[in-house]
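Table S5 (text form). Sequence records supplied for joint modeling of the two-component complex.
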Amino acid sequence: MATEILMPALSPTMEEGTLAKWLVKEGDTVSSGDIMAEIETDKATMEFEAVDEGVVGKILIAEGTEGVKVNTPIAILVEEGEDVPAADAAPAAEAKEEAAPVPTKAPAVAAPAAPVADATPDWDADVEVKQTTVREALRDAMAEEMRRDPDVFLMGEEVAEYQGAYKISQGLLDEFGAKRVIDTPITEHGFAGIGVGAAFGGLKPIVEFMTFNFAMQAIDHIINSAAKTLYMSGGQMGAPMVFRGPNGAAARVGAQHSQDYAAWYMQIPGLKVVMPYSASDAKGLMKTAIRDPNPVIFLENEILYGKSFDVPVMDDFTIPFGKAKIERAGDDVTIVSFGIGMTYALAAAEKLAEEGINAEVINLRTLRPMDTATILNSVRKTNRCVTVEEGWPQGSVGGYISSVIMQEAFDYLDAPVITCTGKDVPMPYAANLEKHALVTADEVVDACKKVTYR
Amino acid sequence: MPPKKAAAKPNVSAEELLGHYREMLLIRRFEEKAGQLYGMGLIGGFCHLYIGQEAVVVGLEAAAEEGDKRVTSYRDHGHMLACGMDPKGIMAELTGREGGFSKGKGGSMHMFSKEKHFYGGHGIVAAQVPLGAGLAFADKYKGNGRVTFTYFGDGAANQGQVYETYNMAELWDLPVVFVIENNQYAMGTSVQRSTKSPSLWERGAAYGIPGEEVDGMNVLAVKEAGERAVAHCRAGKGPYILEVKTYRYRGHSMSDPAKYRTREEVQKMRDERDPIEQIRDMLLTGKHATDDDLKAIDKEIKAIVNEAAEFSKESPEPALDELWTDIYATEIPQEA
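The corresponding structure-token record, covering 790 residues in total, follows.
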């Protein structure tokens, strides 16, 4: 049977090309893999190979022809002894009917519904609480989940014998042994990838980065391997795991050790991003993170590790993702923050109260999913919003929050949203400069006064 | 450690030879068809064909047991066919259709099958190397005796994460076979132009990992070396490296004009070393099969490939609401 040979697309962007040279002539026998022609694409000159066996019956497009559209018949291949069919009887090029489908006008497909605000407290009023440091809360959460599920393990630099560079994994090696609490060499890219592979293989790894600054060496695995695989596999497999460690500025460690990655990771579909403030946040959210069937970025803070907070004494205390907490109620202005930013937000609210301004302070806790419903409800009440974070201003978390408010509650705003952020500079070492590079409670106070016109 | 020279066993059964022939031919014909569909605009983006390298995956799959895992790069169609994934689902993924293994959301470079223990299909050069070691880590943790085949190319062999992985794989005795598919060109850069230590498997010695060089155009040699590697891993001795010397006939991807090598170099390889022709000769000279037997197999393979191509055209595009699915899991998927 005669087969039409079509002008091929030889690059992702080629629509037409030049048939530069025929390397066969009518009457030649060709078999699969023989080079038939040279074709100039939009990028290069390519050799075009035969796929089928046969005899070149007729050459339809002469060499040197420019602007030959992809899928135009360029030659007819016949079987040995077969006649070339008349032009009008040539078999219809199958690609003519079956060319790559043109996208039809897409009906609007709704993105998943926006969250609904949930103001229930994290624990009941009659539950006993115990003062606990963030450090102990994180350790307790990991230990409880490791007792609960034998597939959970912890790996990272100095997590086992050294008991953690920041002592977060203190005691875990003794309780769970070297099989489940694993010291790695200093090799972030490699062990992050091994962690993701282990998650593909059915385990639930907790990968500790000594700090998130070093996770930049591993960010390809966090994003390309962990976050995207569920989607790319059509839901067949993903990476149920936690990447955790201290994030953001500590104290006097300079530019390469002082960066807040909240806004970076928050951008990635497929990741969940948690940034706890208090010890109860840390405990309840870490337990939820370990159980979550998706990759979770858990951004801790070195300065908060030693701070103590009330933690409920419960067998199994968890906090769901996507549920912000109103840490302080107020009617005059909404302050939204997360992680260590909460220390500035709460200090500012305290000062503002002395001046008769009642700020409502929202602790986001998870940045993805983000509880925008709680923010919007508050802004509809206060008509003003100030965001607080240590990260840089351009592409900040606050920038995203203000865009959500503008799109969803524009008519409620009595003043522009102000985003209080770290300064747009690498972190300096000098003590006085470092203090100025970070966001301050006074800046938050000033911003709140500005939006309340005081 | 000196390389162990693999020699083809003289007494291979006709059944085994025919099996290798059939599987290699399926990959060859499938890839030719994929190239054709690409030319027609039915397959988009990047498409990296495996033509010429068929003996590598077919030989190693012959050394694998049920439950063993495999992971590779973006040149992945051959691996998927060799581990038994349905050609229809592979081709439909190439055309971006609902019937593809990833529902059309992954494409040529990103395909997976939990059922066949195929863990991708990865588009970032060498990223699959620590992922493969991680799969082996999970198997060792569970103590299930499984082995992971982690394939990468001579180009990936210069990435830092390969050596980070070698170090930990040997440190923790992970049951992983590192298969370097040395097809001599990392896109357009030959091995000679990218390193002064061209014996890639020997780099494992720095980490204490044994290995060997294998004739990757000879499926029987690959299988034999694969069996040695798997035995090493299953005995709990840690990883093993196979540097399989192979050759790709086509360009790096469909849009590669391949000006970095001569037409004669490619033709010489096809004429003298072709893995399928080698087995064909063994079958005919050993009187294991007649010309007609082989023609019947050719016809059968052609029918399978045509059926896959038809399916890949007829399967509908994914529904638009698929845009929003599979971003987050609601529960941890069960192991296959």
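Note: Chain A has 14 helices and 22 strands.
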